[in-house]
Amino acid sequence: MSTHQPPLSQAAPAAPEWQAAPGGPYPGYVSPIPVVRTRLGHAITSEWTKIRSVRSTIWTLGVFVLLVVGIGLLAGALVSSSSSSGDLSDGNALSLGFFGLLLGSMCIITLGVLTTASEYGTGMIRTTMVACPSRARVLAAKAIVFFAVAFVITLAASAFVAMTQVSMLSDVARTPTGGEWLKGTVGVSLYIALLGLLSLIVGSIIRHSAGAITVMIGAVLAPLVIALFMFSSSLEQVRNALFEYSIPNQLSVFYSNSLSDSGPSGWDPLWIILGVTAVAFAGAYALLEKRDV
């Protein structure tokens, strides 16, 4: 009994070029899309796309620039037109930029928290981790991109205010030295950017936008407010420490206008915030590796 063979026209279609025919060797498949090993640069590009395409970045940085420039110019105009402006003859003309930066720092803090915590709120962090399974790389990319953005924006705003104030107060205040220029522009910009980076890390730890923002605003304002209500002489040392190491006082150090006679001076505030941020970053990395997304 012979086996029925189908006509040639009804035979099974030939296997695709990339797929081996039954019983034959498998030649493999070569994708037309190039496969590239991911690196930190790819993660940085991704985070840069995120931070420049969300509305929160435009709003927070826009309000920040408005506060720093607006309050700085207003303070300079009021002092230059005041009859008591001669009191600045021995002071630093750059010191008036302190008020705008102190309020503007709240915007940088908010943006820092939202850079990480908002992804947990929306669930977008799952997509991020699938695209880049290395959690350390994701956190590092977020930190690099945010720090660069915060530093550049703060430096541009503070430098503009500084130059304008020196011009407005040239007749009533002394010209700042080179060291004062460096601290009042680059130094304070590094400090604000690191403060925002600390907020980003706190957002990664808490994973809740409102909670992390509350914690950071409390860290900025609470020590100074608590110290104001410590009237007992037995608490004098604690009160002085809260004054000296409060964030507003550390900001004022960059303008040679400390709120206390002791405590941090020179570039000390920058090293303090750098150390605190490094410790917080290590803690955030450890938690990120142990937690589920």
Topology:
Layout: H1 40-53, H2 55-81, H3 97-122, H4 124-131, H5 135-168, H6 178-206, H7 209-228, H8 236-245, H9 247-253, H10 268-290
**Helix-and-strand structural type:** mainly alpha
- The gross shape turns out to be globular
Total count of helical runs of at least 4 residues: 10
The poorly predicted ranges are 17-21
| Strand residue percentage | under 5%
Query: Level of helix content?
Result: 55-70%
End-to-end separation in angstroms reads 66 Å
Instruction: Report the sheet with the most strands, covering strand number, pairing sense and barrel closure.
Output: none
Determine the oligomeric state from the structure: single chain
Gyration radius from CA atoms, angstroms: 28 Å
The helix/strand series, from N terminus to C terminus, equals: HHHHHHHHHH
Mean pLDDT: 83
Please tally the β strands and state the result: 0
Notes on the structure:
It comes from Streptomyces fuscichromogenes. GO terms for molecular function: ABC-type transporter activity. Helices cover 68% and strands 0% of the residues. About 2% of the residues have low confidence. The chain is globular. It is mainly α and 293 residues long. The chain contains ten helices and no strands.
